[in-house]
Amino acid sequence: MRSCVAVLSAAVLAAGCGGGGDPVGIEEAKRCLVEHEDEFRVMGPLDGERGDEDAPDRTLMVGGAQASAYLAYYDDAKRAESLTRELEEAAKAYDGRVDRHGRLTIIWTNGADSSQASKIEACALES
């Protein structure tokens, strides 16, 4: 969990400088987000930290002027679901929100209801 909080903190710092179906693969999400390079900075994909059972298997961090999110991809949807409560508690520290989509958990650090958030979701989820 510590690595999740650390990466969540990094996403908030990076922010300073859609869809609605099942999650797309992490590489597809990144390609889509990079197409909006004038709006977003994208970091990742990053592999999960070895030995940290709470860490997602892969992640993307997305920062924009209106919205920032941490896209946590898990190989197992049940594992992702089991970690939701901990992530929601961590997100509260940033006035954030957690949205679950099967194997994908989106942790919004800001702007979850903005137009940029809609673009992030459109890139991360099948329409």
What does this structure look like?
This protein is of the alpha+beta class and 127 residues long. It has one domain (2-124). It is built from five helices and five strands, in the order H-H-E-E-E-H-H-E-E-H. Helix 2 (26-34) crosses helix 5 (115-124).
Question: Briefly, what is this?
Answer:
This protein has helices at residues 2-16, 26-34, 77-82, 84-92, 115-124; strands spanning 40-47, 58-64, 68-73, 97-101, 104-110. The protein is an alpha+beta fold and 127 residues long.
Strand content: 25-35%
Largest sheet: 5 strands, antiparallel
* Percent of residues in helices: 25-40%
The structural class is alpha+beta
Order of helices and strands: HHEEEHHEEH
Number of strands: 5
Pick out the low-confidence regions: 1-19
The end-to-end span amounts to 31 Å
Task: Output the keywords.
five-stranded antiparallel sheet, globular, 127 residues, single chain, 5 helices
How is the secondary structure organized here?
Layout: H1 2-16, H2 26-34, E1 40-47, E2 58-64, E3 68-73, H3 77-82, H4 84-92, E4 97-101, E5 104-110, H5 115-124
